[in-house]
C-alpha cells in the first residue's frame, strides 16, 4: 500500500501508539482527582502542555486542549464573538478556509454578523492589502488559514498579522492545522491572537488538538461543566490523546527538517516525471518552495472525474484524495479551486497527493508512473462515453 493522503490524516507513529497504550494501562486517573493517580495524569497533561507551548514559542498557560482542529476553530471564533458584545458586528475570512472555519462564518452570517469573504489569486493566496482594506470600524475578528489543506498554498500570515496589529480591536485567528509542527509559525511573532492545531495531521491520534489563546485574551467557552482547561473547555481531559499529541510533537521536531527537504525534492522530481507527458494536466496552487507546503500537491485532469481517478489509483494500491466529493457524493466542484479561478471541469477532476513522515522517494516515483499509465486510459474511456 502507498498512502499519499496524509493531509486527510496520518498513520500514527508506532512510538505514539506505545506512549498512549502505556498511559491507558497505567495512568488512567482523572486529572481532577485529588489522589496520586489523578496527580500523575495531571502531571502528564501539564508536561504535554509545555511541549505544545514550546513548539509554538508561547507559554503553557496559552495552550488549551480541545477535541481537535474543528473544535479549536469553533472555539476561537464563537468563543471570541460571544465575549465581545457590542464592540462590532463585522468579521473577515477567506474563500478558501477549511469547512470548520468557513461553515462557522456561514452560520454567523445567518445570525446577523456582516461577513467579508476575501478572494484569492490563481495560486490560492490572499493579498494582505485586501485584508487591511476589508477592515472597518466594526471589524472584530479575522480568520486566515496558514497552509491550505487542498492545494498547500501558504498564506502570508506574518504580513497579515503585522497589518492587523495596527487595529487593536481586531483579533487575528489562524487555522494552522496543516502546518503545525512542520512549518515554522510562532503566534507572538506573527501577531496572532488565536491559533488552532490538531494531532492527527502529525502522526498523532485523532480526537485531540489545541487552541493557542494569547495571554490576557478571554473567550466564552463552547462547553461548560466541570471547568477543566481553566474553565474554557469543560470535560475530562483525553489524557492518552494529550500524551500522544506531545509525543507526536517531539517526533516532528526531530523529523521535520529532513521531511521538508525530502518532500520538496520528491515533489519536484514527481512533476518532472510527469512533465509534458499528460495533457491536459494542471498543477493547482503555488509550487514554489517559499509559497507552498512541499508535502501537498494538487493536480487537475479535466475530463476525468476525481472519484474515478481515486478508485483507479486505489486498484493499484495507491491512496490519494479527491476534493470534489461531498457527503452526498454529488459532483460539487471544490470551493477552494473555484475561488482560484478553476472551471467546474478542472475543479471536478482534481486529486490531492500528500506526503507524511513515512513517505519514500520510491512511493512518489511509483505514484507518478501509475498516473502516466492510468490517465491516458481513463481519458480514452471518458472520450468514448462522451462520444
Ligand atoms: C486546515 C484544516 N483545519 C481544520 C481541520 C479539522 O481538524 P480535525 O480533523 O482535527 O477536526 C482540518 C482537517 O482536515 C484541516 O485540514
Automatic annotation (TrEMBL):
InterPro entries: Aminotrans_V_dom, Aminotrans_V_PyrdxlP_BS, Cysteine_dSase, PyrdxlP-dep_Trfase, PyrdxlP-dep_Trfase_major, PyrdxlP-dep_Trfase_small. It comes from the Bacteria. Pfam families: Aminotran_5 (PF00266). Residues 2-366 form the Aminotransferase class V domain. The keyword Metal-binding applies. GO terms for molecular function: cysteine desulfurase activity; iron-sulfur cluster binding; metal ion binding. Its cofactor is pyridoxal 5'-phosphate. SUPFAM superfamilies: PLP-dependent transferases. Keywords: Iron, Iron-sulfur, Metal-binding, Pyridoxal phosphate. Belongs to the class-V pyridoxal-phosphate-dependent aminotransferase family. NifS/IscS subfamily. This is Cysteine desulfurase. It comes from Lihuaxuella thermophila.
Amino acid at each position: 500500500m502507498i498512502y499519499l493522503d496524509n493531509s486527510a490524516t496520518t498513520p500514527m507513529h508506532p512510538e505514539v501508539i506505545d506512549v498512549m497504550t502505556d498511559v491507558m494501562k497505567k495512568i488512567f486517573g482523572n486529572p481532577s482527582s485529588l489522589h496520586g493517580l489523578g496527580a500523575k495524569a495531571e502531571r502528564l497533561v501539564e508536561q504535554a502542555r509545555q511541549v505544545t507551548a514550546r513548539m509554538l514559542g508561547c507559554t503553557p498557560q496559552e495552550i488549551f486542549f480541545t477535541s481537535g482542529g474543528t473544535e479549536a476553530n469553533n472555539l476561537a471564533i464563537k468563543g471570541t464573538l460571544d465575549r465581545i458584545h457590542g464592540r462590532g458586528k463585522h468579521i473577515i475570512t477567506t474563500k478558501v478556509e477549511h469547512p470548520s472555519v468557513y461553515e462557522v462564518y456561514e452560520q454567523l452570517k445567518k445570525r446577523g454578523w456582516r461577513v467579508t469573504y476575501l478572494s484569492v489569486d490563481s495560486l490560492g493566496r490572499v493579498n494582505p492589502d485586501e485584508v487591511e482594506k476589508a477592515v472597518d470600524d466594526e471589524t472584530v475578528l479575522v480568520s486566515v488559514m496558514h497552509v491550505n489543506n487542498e492545494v498547500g498554498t501558504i498564506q502570508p500570515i506574518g504580513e497579515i498579522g503585522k497589518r492587523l496589529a495596527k487595529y487593536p480591536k481586531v483579533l487575528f485567528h489562524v487555522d494552522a492545522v496543516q502546518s503545525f509542527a512542520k512549518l515554522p509559525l510562532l503566534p507572538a511573532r506573527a501577531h496572532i491572537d488565536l491559533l488552532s492545531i490538531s494531532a492527527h495531521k502529525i502522526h498523532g491520534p485523532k480526537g485531540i488538538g489545541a487552541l493557542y489563546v494569547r495571554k490576557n485574551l478571554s473567550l466564552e467557552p463552547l462547553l461548560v461543566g466541570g471547568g477543566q482547561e481553566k474553565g474554557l473547555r469543560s470535560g475530562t481531559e483525553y489524557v492518552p490523546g494529550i500524551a500522544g499529541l506531545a509525543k507526536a510533537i517531539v517526533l516532528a521536531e526531530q523529523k521535520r527538517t529532513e521531511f521538508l527537504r525530502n518532500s520538496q525534492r520528491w515533489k519536484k522530481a514527481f512533476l518532472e516525471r510527469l512533465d509534458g507527458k499528460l495533457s491536459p494536466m494542471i498543477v493547482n496552487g503555488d509550487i514554489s518552495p517559499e509559497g507552498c507546503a512541499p508535502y501537498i500537491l494538487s493536480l487537475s485532469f479535466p475530463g476525468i472525474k476525481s472519484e474515478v481517478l481515486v478508485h483507479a489509483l486505489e486498484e493499484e494500491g495507491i491512496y490519494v484524495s479527491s476534493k470534489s466529493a461531498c457527503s452526498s457524493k454529488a459532483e460539487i466542484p471544490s470551493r477552494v479551486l473555484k475561488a482560484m479561478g478553476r472551471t467546474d471541469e478542472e475543479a471536478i477532476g482534481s486529486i490531492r497527493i500528500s506526503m507524511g513522515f513515512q513517505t519514500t522517494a520510491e512511493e512518489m516515483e511509483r505514484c507518478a508512473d501509475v498516473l502516466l499509465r492510468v490517465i491516458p486510459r481513463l481519458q480514452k474511456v471518458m472520450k468514448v462515453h462522451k462520444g
